[in-house]
Amino acid sequence: MGTAPVAEPEVRRAGRGRWIRIGFLVLVVVFAVVWVWQNRHQAGAAWSRVRPWPVVGAFVASALSAWTAVPAWRDLLVGLGSRLRLRDAQRIFLMGQLGKYIPGGVWTVVAQASMAREFKVPRTRSATASLMCILLAVVASAGLGALCLGVAGHQVLGRYGWWLLVVVPLVALLHPGVLVWAGTVAERVTKRNVPLERIPERTLLAAAGWLLVGQVFNGLAFFLLVGSIGGHWINPLLSIGLFSLASAFGLLVIFAPAGAGAREIILAFGLASVTDPGSAVLIVLMSRVVLTIVDLVLAGSAAVIGRGRRPAVDRPD
C-alpha cells in the first residue's frame, strides 16, 4: 500500500516556515557582517585589552551554567515518574542540547526523547520534561533579568523600565495547572503536539531553582567578558540582568538556532550605554563563541563518560 499524501496546506505551511527561518538567518548574518565591519577598528583596539584569566573564568562560569540544566531536567523527569542516574541524564541532556543549533526549535526535544528511549523512558515523558525545562528557563531568565535590571539597569532602560512589568505574568507558569494550560495553548497555535503533563509544584520550583542558578553563572561569565574587553568593570547585576533578559528572548525565538541574532541584538542595545560600539561587537561575539565551545565540550565529555555504560534506570526511593 502507498503512503497517504501529505495535505497541501501542511506542505505550504512547512515551506513558509522554512523560508522564514532562512530569511531571518540571512538578515542576522548580513546585519552582523555590516556591524562588525563598521566597528572593526574599535573592535581591534578592544581585542588588545583582552586578558586570558577573565576569559578562562567566563568559560568556567558558562560550563557551570550549562550543567545546572541537567539536574533541572532530571528533577522534571522524576516528577513525571522516571528516575535516571545523574550520569545518564547528563549524557542525554547535554548531547541533546546540540540540537538547538539546528533551525526549527524542536530538535533538542527530539534528540533527548530519542536517547532517553534507550533508558526505557517513554518519548512523551522525556519530551514533556524537555519542553517544561525550556518554559521554566524562559521564566527564570526573564524573572532574573527583570529583577537585576530593575535594581541596576536604569542607564540601560531609561524611561522604558516599566516594560519589565511584562515579565510578571510569566511567574504564573510556576504553577502546574498554568503550565499545562500554556502547553495546550501552544499546541493549538503551533498545531503541533505539545505533551505537557501535570507535575508537582515542588518539583517545578526545584527545577526552576537550578535554572535560576545557571542564569546567574551565565551572567557572571558575561560580566567577566564585559570587564575584560570593555576596559572597565560595570555593576555585576547589570551584566546578569542584561544577559538573562537577552537569553529569555533568545529562547522564545525558536526558529533561530540557539537564539542566534535575537540574543545578540538585545545584548548590543544594552551594551550601547555602557561601552563603545567596537567593544560591544567583540563582547557579543566572544559571548557566542564561549557558549558554543562550552556546549560542544560538555556534550563531548558526556558522550565519552557515558560510552560503554549499560543503560539503566534508577528505582524510586
Can you offer a commentary on this structure?
This protein is mostly helical and 317 residues long. The protein has 12 helices and no strands. The protein is globular and about 50 Å long.
Q: How far from one another are the termini?
A: 49 Å
Instruction: Note the main sheet.
Output: none
Query: Oligomeric state of the chains?
Result: single chain
Global mean pLDDT: 77
Helix content: over 70%
SS-derived structural category: mainly alpha
Low-confidence stretches: 1-7, 313-317
Tally the beta strands.
0
Order of helices and strands: HHHHHHHHHHHH
Mind telling me the C-alpha Rg?
A: 20 Å
Task: Give a short synopsis of this structure.
The chain has 317 residues and is mainly α.
Features:
single chain; 317 residues; mainly alpha; 12 helices; globular; disordered N terminus
Write the layout of secondary structure elements.
Layout: H1 8-38, H2 40-47, H3 52-80, H4 86-96, H5 107-117, H6 123-152, H7 154-157, H8 176-190, H9 201-230, H10 236-252, H11 262-271, H12 277-306
